[in-house]
Specification:
Elements (H helix, E strand, L loop, with lengths): L5 H7 L4 E4 L9 H18 L5 H15 L4 H8 L7 H10 L7 E2 L2 H12 L3 E6 L3 H10 E2 L7 E4 L13 H10 L6 E5 L2 H10 L2 E4 L7
Parallel strand pairs: 1-3, 1-6, 2-4, 3-5, 6-7
Helix pairs in contact: 2-3, 2-5
Bound molecules: magnesium ion (MG).
Magnesium ion (MG) binds next to loops.
């Protein structure tokens, strides 16, 4: 059971609207990326049957885990002869990897928190940066409760100047939900998320604080 002491739950339940970040807040993004990188390796293999899916997949995953996603395509290109698989295709596969609906589990404590909130008739939204096609694919893949009751906002859908940490979408969600700023709690995992809350003049909680509540 989620470790929320009673008085803390009561305090948390003072808010009416809860906005969650998506990646590494609701679920572990590595679970999506591992599938995507494996899929990319399979698609490259279709055009280059002399290359090993397992090796390319391991290379992408370990490079990502050790050094992040920056320049990942170029690193793959430097290591393997994949000139017939352009960056455009790499990105298309990354964003559209076919994953079964609700097959990626979410963090147990987040699942419990969302269930508590919905049961208390709280409003719940998700605000995520990132390519909207990719973020929609993730939403479809992730198994989080009450999905149909949660409105998803894609901050990159309007252009990069409207992405977090811009307050634009927080203001939009506030307007759509008819709540005051002091009734909103933003829950995220990164500095971009805490900056978004600061820029929007709303309260923020880091998802890792849940354990300590
Ligand atoms: Mg995040």
């Amino acid at each position: 059971m989620i470790r929320l002491q009673k008085y803390r739950v009561v305090k948390l339940l003072d808010y009416r609207l809860f906005i969650f970040d998506l990646d590494n807040t609701i679920y572990d993004e590595n679970n999506y990326l591992r599938k995507a990188y494996n899929y990319i390796a399979e698609m490259i293999f279709k055009k280059n049957s002399s290359l090993s899916v397992r090796q390319m997949s391991s290379f992408l995953i370990s490079e990502f885990e050790n050094n992040g996603r920056f320049n990942l395509y170029q690193k793959l290109l430097d290591k393997y002869d994949i000139g017939n698989f352009p960056l455009k295709e790499f990105l298309y596969c990354l964003r559209n990897v076919p994953i079964d609906c609700n097959s990626i589990p979410i963090d147990k404590k987040v699942q419990e928190l969302i269930t508590i909130l919905i049961n208390h008739k709280k409003m719940v939204s998700v605000l995520t940066n990132g390519n909207p096609d990719q973020q929609k694919n993730k939403i479809n893949s992730i198994d989080f409760p009450h999905k149909n009751e949660i409105k998803i906002y894609y901050a990159s859908s309007k252009g990069s100047e409207f992405e977090k940490p811009s307050p634009y979408f927080i203001d939009k969600i506030k307007y759509d939900s008819c709540v005051e700023k002091n009734e909103i709690l933003f829950i995220g995992d990164s500095k971009i998320d805490s900056d978004t809350a600061k820029n929007s003049c709303i309260d923020f909680m880091n998802i890792n604080q849940i354990e300590q509540l």
